[in-house]
Amino acid sequence: MPTVLTEARHDGGFLVSEADGHRSRDVGTLGGATKFLSGMVLATLAGGAATATAKAGNAGNGVFTLDATTPVLDTAMVGTYIVRCTAAATNGGAFRVFDPSGDVLGDVAVGATFNDQIKFVIADGAVDFIIGDEFDVSVSVLSQTYVQLNPTATDGTKIATGVSFATVDATLSNQPGTILKRDAEVNGSELIWPTGATGAQIAIATAQLAAKGIVLR
Q1: Distance CA 131, CA 137 (A)
Q2: 203 CB contacts (<8 Å, ≥6 apart)?
Q3: Rounded to an integer, what distance in angstroms lies between the CA atom of residue 7 and that of residue 39?
Q4: Where are the chain's structural domains?
Q5: pLDDT digits 0-9 by tens, 144-201
Q6: Which CATH fold would you assign to the domain 15-45+143-216?
Q7: Residue 128: what pLDDT?
Q8: Which of 24, 83, 146, 158 could link 184 by a cystine bridge, Cβ 3.0 to 4.6 Å?
Q9: Distance between CA atoms of 152 and 158, rounded to whole angstroms?
């Protein structure tokens, strides 16, 4: 009886094309107690260091609280976020959030949770906020750990951020690995999606990869 040989997946075998040099690839840390295969769709584990500071001279004395579990999401930027009061109200008000580049992320009401790049809530205090009151949120370190995409997760790993270039066994400990992160064409039939992922979830993740220039063919 002949011996059956099974050919393993080839590193980068899912690639159709990529940018010149190695611009499409980065080296990152693979974790999550997983054996990563070439072509596995990845997400970035949310995490990082952040501190919030009230602007000197604020009129309102409400409390700004960063989320205890995921104050820094996987889409965050290193730098200082500005959270400025744009609407005053008795026992309330609204704040506008600017990212470190000065772009507006959105508005959040006092007492509600803001959840875009950074996650926090501003509680009302004994003295109401006035327009111009401000908090600064400094993000200094971002997570560079990649795990397998999980479309139902709440820790940021439901957002597709790259594709594992090679087979890397990180079941016992985190390991370095090459990540396809931008500007490439890939064979969609060669990608490895999470077990049980629905067509709708795969479509969302496909769009997330496309936003990074990773196009399925």
Answers
A1: 18
A2: none
A3: 15
A4: 15-45+143-216, 48-142
A5: 789 999 999 877 788 899 999 999 999 999 999 999 999 999 999 999 999 999 999 9
A6: Virus Head Decoration Protein; Chain: A, (2.40.300)
A7: 97
A8: 24
A9: 6
